[in-house]
Amino acid sequence: MINSALSVIVHAKPGKEEDVADFLRSARPIVEQEEGTRAWFALQFDESTFGIFDVFPDDEARQTHLSGGVGQALAAQGADLFSTEPSIQNVDVIAYKLPGETS
């Protein structure tokens, strides 16, 4: 069951767009090791706006993810890569469709 999600929006500093894309690509192996992260997406909205959307069975798994490897990497590299602080929103999931699961 999926009940919780995160929506994260980041804005790359000028000239750092490809570095942000590479950073997001490099996060996948970290997220794959997180048992509570059921789905994870790295997104690019325009040239300098990127996002992450991920879903979890509960708030505990969401908090574990936030304090895990990707969250730590965002905090450590954010000042170098992003023009503003990441916008992080907790989201409640009301319905979903994932392979092998029903809401």
UniProtKB/TrEMBL annotation:
InterPro entries per UniProt: Dimeric_a/b-barrel (IPR011008)
Q: Which domain of life is it from?
A: Bacteria
Q: What is this protein called?
A: Antibiotic biosynthesis monooxygenase
